[in-house]
Design brief:
391 residues; alpha+beta; eight-stranded mixed sheet; six-stranded mixed sheet; 13 helices; globular
Length: 391
């Protein structure tokens, strides 16, 4: 099998890249180890930055998002029983975010790819990337029990932290930077309308809490818990009671309860792999970087990566120059490290460390006071949350 761009992984990064390439007249093949049903129900991020929304619309993948997604013009910061709304459009010149789950993004892009895009092979396990240093890299893969080879001009690894793409970068050329946090998020889905029309980020002495949503009738909520927590060790009553404590305010705001349909614990980790390119192998998304979910950056960073690659490849086709492809890693990493910084800042701003001292508690509150009392600090938060420039 032969193609111009071999894409490993049919998450939002791989699927969007395939769409961008198709629209530019570049052929590609997408290899996905899981079946279609798994990909379309894999729960991940739900916040799309302004730039991601714009890219999906331009790619022809925004129709259902615009119809069913929930535009949010702000978030609420909650601490010391106080509430403060951060108004995104007023602080950023009109930017907002969209609540639209990764599962829905994948469904939309899969439908487009199967309708008029290049081959999308489910249950096609990539085994190795070979010849990345040559002008004819190849991906060995297994599909329907048979081993095959995909020959490419370029390979883009969108196959996550555990995939084969990152492992194809020689260890002697790789640098990794990481931090593991001593807590995680106990997340629930509940069949109840959200108790607020925008996301609420709550800092509490008992730990962080987040009020989010998946739709007008389904709430998504999180509690900071120890990293080794078993989700099933928390009863529904204990979860709702703890959420009520951490969201408490001095006004008459009420958290609405409903049937909990799903519980899980999300680990908190920061990770960056440098470089993001080796020869004709390019890493994108979780294959190259992971952020704690506090900053809502994971999916959006992956979008930035594949847009950067697609632009660089288009530049080469138009000019014959490899300059932008050669700059891919450095270009992406500038954005990646800003997102890592913001995600780290939000995480340390809102979560209480297990060994936190009273001094550190007061510093957290002082940092939050600074944001809500300084337009410059609030603008910085709003600009980062709604998205750093792509490229």
């Amino acid at each position: 099998m032969r193609t111009t761009v071999g894409i490993i992984g049919a998450g939002p990064a791989g699927l969007l890249l395939a769409r961008l390439l198709h629209n530019a007249g570049v052929d590609s093949v997408v290899l996905e180890s899981r079946d279609r049903a798994y990909v379309e129900r894999r729960q991940r991020a739900g916040i799309l930055e302004q730039g991601t929304v714009d890219v999906l619309r331009a790619a022809g993948a925004g129709e259902r998002m615009d119809r069913e997604g929930l535009r949010h013009d702000g978030i609420e910061l909650r601490f010391d029983r106080r509430r403060h709304r951060v108004d995104f459009p007023a602080l950023t010149g009109g930017k907002s975010v969209m609540v639209y789950a990764q599962t829905e993004v994948c469904k939309d892009l899969i439908a487009l790819q199967l309708a008029d895009g290049g081959p999308l092979l489910f249950e096609a396990e990539a085994l190795a990337v070979e010849g990345a240093e040559t002008d004819r890299p190849r991906v060995r893969f297994r599909h329907e029990g048979v081993e095959d080879v995909l020959e490419c001009d370029y390979v883009v690894g969108c196959d996550g932290f555990w995939g084969v793409a990152r492992k194809a970068v020689p260890a002697g050329l790789s640098q990794t930077f990481e931090r593991t946090y001593p807590f995680g998020w106990l997340g629930i889905l509940a069949d109840v309308a959200p108790s607020h029309d925008e996301l609420v980020y709550a800092r509490h002495d008992r730990g962080f809490a987040l009020l989010s949503m998946r739709s007008p009738s389904v709430s998504r909520l999180y509690l900071q818990v120890p990293a080794d927590t078993d989700a099933e060790s928390w009863s529904d009553e204990e979860i709702w009671a703890e959420l009520e404590r951490r969201f408490e305010t001095d006004d008459d705001w009420v958290l609405h309860r409903g049937p909990i349909t799903q519980k899980s614990v999300t680990p908190m980790r920061s990770y960056v792999h440098e470089p993001m390119r080796h020869g004709r192998l390019f890493l994108a998304g979780d294959a190259a970087h992971i952020v704690p979910p506090t900053g809502a950056k994971g999916l959006n960073l992956a979008v930035g990566d594949v847009v950067t690659f697609a632009r660089a490849l288009a530049h080469r086709r138009e000019t014959g120059s490899d300059d932008l492809l050669d700059a891919y890693s450095a270009t992406c990493l500038r954005r990646v490290w800003q997102a890592e910084r913001f995600s780290y800042d939000m995480t340390t701003l809102l979560h209480r460390a297990p060994d936190a001292t009273p001094f550190e508690d007061r510093l957290q509150v002082a940092r939050l006071d600074r944001i809500v009392s300084s337009r410059a600090a609030e603008t910085d938060l709003a600009g980062a949350y709604t998205g750093f420039p792509i490229g």
